Amino acid sequence: MDALADPRPLRGEPLSLDLLNTRWHDGQLFHRPDGLAVWLSSNGLTGRAPDDQATLTALLETRDALLALRADPHDTAALNAVLAHGRIRRTLGADGLPHHEPEVADPSWLPAWLAADDYLHLLARGPQRIRECAHERCILTFFDTSQNGRRRWCDMSGCGNRAKAARHYAQQNHQPR
User: Fold this and answer.
1) Domains and CATH numbers, the chain
2) What is the dihedral of CA 67, 68, 72, 76, to 10 degrees?
């Protein structure tokens, strides 16, 4: 098996939600010795930030800030503290087009800052589309991109099917014979 294979059940979510999803019901990606390297690789950040304790600490601080916001949307201080580590630098390129690049003083903060900035973009697109999986034993978060905005499960083939099977089983056991 590839050493950088991502073991998580839900991948491909926006960066901020992917950071939240480094914890799931039976695991914590960052508890693995290669967890940070896996996460950086999964998000195209290998080589853009050091694979070290400082980067991990910044990411954990950001994840805690995002979790706090999920619990209380008015608890903004921690996320704003993460955002204070960087900014977007806008320039006009030689091609005549505007360019923007994230700028952080400490490269260890780049992934954390990008995740915090990504969360702001998701809020601007629609805070109601940032959802927790409806399965009772799942803690994963996803961004609902469905047309009608009614997605309930992090993954239809996993949590969605388990919920449907449980509902079917309950209906079968409650019918008179």
Assistant:
1) 15-133+140-145 (1.10.3300.10)
2) -120
